[in-house]
Batch of 3 targets.
Target 1
Amino acid sequence: MAGIKAEDTRASRSEADTLGMEAEEMRRLGHRVVDIVVDRLINRAGEPAILTGEADELLAQLGGPIPNQPLDPEESLRLLAEVAFTHQQRGDHPRYFARVPGPSSFGAILGDWLGTGFNAITASWAGGSGPATLELVVIDWLRQLLGLPSDYEGVLVSGGSHASLTAFAAVQAQRGTGTVYLTDQTHSSLPRALKVLGFSESQIHILPSDEQFRMPVQALREAIAGHRRAGARPLMVIGTAGTTNTGTVDPLPELAAICEAEELWLHVDAAYGGPGCLSASGREDLKGIELAHSLVLDPHKWLFQPYDAGCLLIRPGMLERSFDMNPEYLRDVTAGTGEVDFRNRGLELTRRTRAAKLWLSLRTYGVERFREAIDHGLNLAREAQKYLAANPRRWEIIVPAQLGIVCFALRGAGDDEHEERVRLLSESGYACISSTRLKGKTVFRLCTINPLTSTDDLEGTIDRLAALS
Ligand SMILES: *Cc1c(COP(=O)(O)O)cnc(C)c1O
């Protein structure tokens, strides 16, 4: 146990690095990396919110012949920090409101760095019991925060896309194939996952969303009944808890009741909106989320984690029954001992630790700090709505603030002009927002989940959007 040291027969062994870097140089470059990152974080609000490069210019700076001999690491670090990593969306910039921001926290970054430094592996219990325990602990913390039943299990994966794919593969393995119900607001990674698993086009039943972009409950009931009459086999309903487009939550209690009555699987995609559960008002919007049979959330979006971190929570037994690589002997060895082989809970075998960052950041800041930060994001979207509503001759609110997202349009401006203003705003560097298509019309969309965003940032962005042309 702790304190045991392996005996090294070569007493003189002192190499720190497998490829020969001296310990002093390791410290010097390691500290340099910390300084580069912290300097950038301090100064991030002065950077452009997004920067997209030209392919040939980036290649000219970052490419070249294979370096057969060592090159100056300081210069290489500079190229990474000043060329490679500056040309991207700055998801943690206080005026990055596009797509879904990635406002990662330093406590989480440190956990990722440490896990990488130890080359932590979370594949089998025997090969990584410490990292596996971290993952079990973190998954159970997430489960509690979302309010799911205590026997639910989970796995950390690269993100929402992979988490839903894993859930669908398990449902298919345990229950067979059938018709799946979703809406035109379901994230496109979900129908893609169904397609790669072999679901046919007619088995992927996309319902047009209602006026409020929610799944229409009556139309769902009719579709299920119609398919049963036609001899098809309804299998699963996919609800979204916070759509990427508008932050809308499907009527989860109603979907759960239908799934119960019809014996269908209920998958809830809370990749974006799940962390809203930490806030009292968000929890209200997300009621029914705890009724999911499988649920996906993305800590790398609204839980302040660096990429990548997605999480699947699911009814017990589903994952191991579907993915166990050595079912014949592993079952007896590990059953009931609390020793989990994470390679048997998904489609990855060799796995880094994605739990260390969550574990360290939740301990470092405490859940109350996360709660405040999420409340701040929810409030900002409401503030944006209020600011827009104060000028009704200029702005039209298309979808009111929901879970940190608000969609709006400039009166008198067509689709092209909306897109053009989004482009000009990005090019100015001041801020970055999205345009999206809703019911055939291009509109502006703000996602306000960065705890560093101020009211001034918000109003400055909206004012510039109006002034550009
Ligand atoms: C982002 C998102 C996804 C996809 O998640 P990735 O982490 O990008 O793979 C799925 N569903 C929703 C609602 C999302 O917002």
Target 2
Amino acid sequence: MNPALTVPEPVAMVDRRLSRWREARLDDPRHSDRVAAILGALLGVSFLVCFLTGLLSHLIQHPPSWFSWTTRPAGLYRVTQGLHVATGVATIPLLFAKLWSVFPRLFRWPVADNALHAIERLSLLPLIGGSLFMVTTGVANIELWYPWVFFFPAGHYAVSFVVMGSLVIHATAKWATARRELRRHPAGPREPALSVAGRRRFLGAVGATSAALVVATVGQTVSPLRKLSILAPRRPDIGVQGFPVNRTAVEAGVTDTAQDPGFALAVETGAETLRTFTLTELGELPQRSATLPISCVEGWSTSQTWDGVPVRDILDRAGAPAGRSVRVESLEGGGRYRRSDLTPGQIDDADTILAMRVKGEQLHVDHGFPLRLIAPNRPGVLQTKWVVKLVVS
Ligand SMILES: Nc1nc2c(c(=O)[nH]1)N[C@H]1C(S)=C(S)[C@@H](COP(=O)(O)O)O[C@H]1N2
Ligand SMILES: [Mo]
């Protein structure tokens, strides 16, 4: 016998114990292949929905030249972003249940059977690490807590590709087993009743936890459920004038400039000022009433009736050339959301307005007095408050 091939007795002993421990765990229906497959399929769906809705949100906020976002249906972004946050929240119990369920399988000897198997096992590192990163940063963000140094959307976006890439590897490797497990008759004659019951109880508890978390947050955007929304930091009906404020005038440092009696809106090209409008002048232009939501990327939203002047009319009266993009600028000196861009298509929608009133009242300074941009089908971050300038490109 070749001595190089014999495993030293202590190692063999550890190996035997580990195998016994693992086999005992895997006999438990909650650690079975079927549970792993069911949770895996649910996670696959929720990750995909989350990824696609997140990607869409990213494209709308940072449009590449080939991408253009429509203004209709006006509430579409509210739905896709609500779905993004709701599926993200629902994922959390599924993810922890899956990790707990497959945990014993991580311990095996040899670590991998061949190179392909080694790659598949290694891909679990970015998959698990990345998934935990995504749910942690996502939850912290919707809870308005930013304990990190990097810019949340950039990190959350970059890691989503790491997760989706490793998920493709993982799903490919497990496809055949998962398919067999999902197709198998659920309570086949060979499976003892006790084990079927154990598995169902476990999956039922996981599903109920997911559902409870969604109900406790989704009221931030589904108004009839707002009273149940105990885990969401925002309720769509609470705040100045009856809806939420993310950033107040004081926080933005615009309390004085926004309430300056000499305030005027300027329409500029890069080179010259085409025209300025006082609030009185804007008030004398034909007013447009639009019922549109603010749909924050954090998942809360609120629909309000706004009154103001269509951006198209303001540009026309200033003699600005048609068919150009416009940068909307705020009085706010710094901050990431001090400006946003409107494409010619968005400007042509008559509901793209600079609002002066909400619910028939003058806009509160925390909601963007004297002028706030409000336009259909647009993420909240692009609904610029305290607008002072329209720059035609
Ligand atoms: N100038 C300016 N406009 C802004 C913001 C801001 O920070 N500064 N916040 C945006 C965000 S993130 C949202 S969701 C909407 C609604 O925010 P509010 O709740 O602060 O009004 O306004 C947007 N407009
Ligand atoms: Mo927002």
Target 3
Amino acid sequence: MKVRFLNLSVGDPAQKKEMINALDEVLTHGVLINGPELQAFEALIAETCSRKYAVGVNSGTDALFLALKCLDIGPGDEVITTSLSWIATANAIAMTGATPVFADIGDDLNIDPKSVKNLLSDKTKAILPVHYTGRICNMEKLLKIADSADVSLIEDAAQAFGAKRNEQAAGSFGALACFSFNAMKVFSSLGEAGAILTDKKEDVDRIESLRYNGTINKEVCIEPGLNARMDTIQAAFLLQKFKYVERIIHRRREIAAQYNELLKDIVDLPQEQPDEYNVYYTYTIQTDFRDELQSFLMSKGVETKIQHPFLMPEQPAYKEKSPSMTENAQRIVKRILCIPANEKTTDEEVEYVARQIKLFMEAQ
Ligand SMILES: *Cc1c(COP(=O)(O)O)cnc(C)c1O
């Protein structure tokens, strides 16, 4: 049996037809940038996440960068973020000229609020937690810390569209929140896309200017910016895809529940708590035999992934250049393994993968 980790082809004929129709409509009206689909998409995302506004941009990385710029974060400032994330999180901070400061993580793979508290300094301008694996951080504690230190909180919700904590949606906690709709994400475009959420109209104006070379009225440049606009066609695809998001999340949660049952007491599991509703961007298990298990699974036709094999502060770009606190993270990063758990994974595949893991672990 061959079990793919992820398969991005659009196999369902109805879905494929909808995508082609969406393309057809954009070709017909011809507003390829800032078209009506973009505005419809922004309104839909804002509403879904209980925010006043959403601004579409061309990637999650740009969403993070522009959110930080919107808060005037730059050289001399520090932004506290997690140690374990896709490197885009740290890069967005560093590209503003600010210094990323890397906090430790807990067993839930999310930033540890205690560590954040310990890393606060006079230079701290913001806290940038990542809802890793599609699981929302402990926002009660993080917001309290940000509040008492009088710093902003920006959510990196790139992996967590649709996730909830105490019934509250990912993207609705921070002053600003950033999403990615990159092709690999749970809610994905057919390429690159992202968005920033806020409740302030002045943030919208600033980000809309920054995403188009810092201009107002298209020609007058009031500050340096990027070209970071979302294509109308990606917004059109996302509007179609949105109809399936709930089903996608439901299926991912169903698979997680199956693994939870089949792998109980065999490896360490995500352990979703009663107040959490995780979307399982990845289903990440932990074991001391991670590398051996990954090789074994590969020999049995099972594709797995280590997301991510290096902590951000261990990357050459950041090593010894940024303050960090990584004791738990260093232990955990050697134990994590993402196993196939996307909406196309079948029950038979889940059972097969779980059986192989069980076989391997029993022999240890
Ligand atoms: C994917 C991702 C990003 C970057 O999003 P892109 O759209 O790929 O630029 C940022 N942070 C996290 C946690 C991500 O998973």
